[in-house]
Here is the input.
Amino acid sequence: MTASPTLDPTGRPISRARPRSHIPVFPFDPVSRPRLHTGLDSVVDRRNGGVLLVCGAVGVGKTVAVADWVATHLPRSHPDARIAWLTVRDQTALWPELRARLCVPAAGSGQPAAGVGEAESILAALGEGAEPTVVVIDDAHLITDPLALAGLEYFLQHAPPAVTTVLCARFDPPIRWHLLQLHSRLTRWGAHDLALSPAEVSRLCAGHECALDDQGMHALMDLTEGWAALVRIAAIYLTASPSDNADALTALARPPHAFADLLVGELIDTLSPALRQFLTCTSVPDEFTEQLADDLVGGGAAHLLYELDRINFPMTSLSRSGKVWYSYHPMLRAYFLAEANRLGRDLCADLHLRSARRLTAIGELQAALTHLLAVPDHRELGSFLAEHALALVFADHGESLFDALAGAAPDVLTDPFLRLLQATDALLHGGSGTAQAYRDSARLLADDDPHSLAGPYRLEALTAAVDAELAVATGADSDPIVFPERMPPADRPDLDGYLAVTTGTALALRGELARGEERLRIALSRTRSRCHPRLRLIAVTRLAVTAGLAGSITTMRQRAERACAIARDHDLLDLPETVHATALEAYGAYLQGSDPHPEQIRVLCAEHIRRDGTPGPVAGRLPHVVGNLLDCQCGDDPGATDRLRRSIGRLLDADPAPVLGGGLVSAAVWALLGAGDTAAARQLTERARAVLGHIPDTVLSTAALTSVAGNHQTVLGQVEPVLAATSGAHPVARLTGWLLHARAHRALGNDSKTREAVDNALRIGATHRVARPFFDVPGTVELLDYYAGCFGHCSDFADSIRAGHRPQRRVQHPPLTATELRILQQLPSGRTTQHIADDLSVSINTVKTHLRGIYAKLGTRSRMETLYEARRSGLL
Here is the structure.
């Protein structure tokens, strides 16, 4: 006779009351964790015999989280669920205890076979139609007996759908977990899932009357990473500490006895000597790869890492740049780092050197520097700085580099090479005054002691590069600087590339465009490999500047777009050089008649807090002016004109005076005139003339004011020097000059001179695809309308300008019908009325009727007047 599921073998009823006495009770109130409760509920709700494996080191909160869920949440979310909690202590009693917790009867006759047989017997007693049941097996890592493991595997694989099993363990019991994964029945939680959130840490600390501000909470999270037991110990320590929380948190970085007792007693004492030695050596770097670990321990790292992973040691891994990086929990690393320090100063120095060499070899320069600074002997530090310090500066780590040297190796900073590096860093951040001070200091140091840790060639090369860049940044005369005819062969690509970039830029700005272009191309070739991408970004941006100086606006735009692409590919979007490239691209598009992009305007007009604590443009005044000019052209913001006036005023007030080209001043003047602010335009022109002198840009600004005032004869004399073949003026300036020349002659009634000037302007514009001056100089588009169809090979370019100007036209006449438009489009061909009628398959009288309607709507009396008005209004 088979026993009833609700009766024991003697026939007595089995109580279905929840056996709560075996659920752990803690001497503290657990922190409520709704996120974990929801996750546990979801495993139960699947009703597929699901298994949740919760693994983590001692004290991460496995048992507390599951016990709190079972005791307080599960009865509300699943009131009909049966609960069986089993804490493993004696493996031989595993199945009898589980049977007792589940309140299922023993087998009717005989004893089931150990392991699988016992598990099978319990599952048979539960039955397929069992009520919802949650089985929790705590300390499951203690199950090591092969028979017990076999029974556990059988139980998990064959559990009925209504049975959910939760296993809490420090590491995975050695059974075939993949079989459960194949059927989507296994869910894993690790230390990361169990880590307390900042809000949960705050509630836990509040329970111990420990209040932390945001900074203290951040420090505690960095220290404990949400490890529950460590957080609780820290809260108790902070509450009892007589010092303030900041000092107490600093002291916690060196594990106090309470931390050490927990870590040693429950975690570290269980490790083999080989693993402890491995952990001691690999705790020296913040993080390490398998290859670095091999260097530190002499080989065998792969096996030891496998062992640590097998026992679920608190260690994280992260894939970066094609390598797997490992790191330990901060408290564990602090413990083993203290162990390393106790083994002797020489051993620690050796481990730091090994770490630095491997990190340098794989390009982790900033991490390598940290280890070299920890070595008392600075000889290897000097070699490292000579080879790699410039790369750190380009990676925007200059400030942290010099701060670290000032704290750990101040004597190194007295080397002239380091002073020049400080000057380079200042130049990259727009601090030309600071850079000049460092350059002067380097000169004095070199005079006192010509020997440098970098050697004579590198010192000489960096000196020349800094001098050239200072000349560019300050606008100083670079003629006294002697640049070698040929670049020396590459020794260090970053240094030689920087030398080529700076000297090439200086040559271009002093008018030697061909030599400057050649140097910059050399720089680009030397920065394609083994250099920080920022140097390549600078080289391409400077090549764009050179193209702009030469008047090749299309090439300037293309190179600037390429520089922006480099910035996007290498996550360099926040650098000043990227903003400069954006300014060049946007200004080139502006000159070629394209509408500005709102995102470009936002980037160019952005401001930030500079190193001296004052607000200012992200990349200096020049890109800021370009951004405000584009913003002004949008016409959406009435305050844009005032911002443009202020920004270019600050640029002209800068010391040293800026180097301006490409018609930026006259473009701003035209923008102000277009907004009706003639007084601001005049004030800007006078200020620019006082600062920049008699250059084409200021001459054209003056001529623009004269033209708007109607003094056309004076305009002719003002623009004549710009139009002279020997003037060497920028193509944009010459184009603007010819348009002012044409407007003046048109007003004076000189038709042939007007036509000649328009032709000259179109030839320049078509060559460089520059359209903006045609929109800026009043009446220019009307001249193109008047002479439409008469420009030969420039006609397509003229038509594109007229088409681009159509949205700005104001049509005052009534709209034409579709038929009238078809007839109007036939008029420029010179065809007779009869020919038009034949083409349209209508009578000649119909065409004449439509022509009278066109004349009436356009207010014209002849074909010639009609063609002019149609072109002026954008109909043709």
Observations:
- The two ends are 105 Å apart (CA to CA).
- The CA atoms of residues 722 and 750 lie 20 Å apart.
- The beta strands are 51-55, 82-87, 133-138, 163-169, 186-189, 315-320, 323-328, 607-609, 615-617.
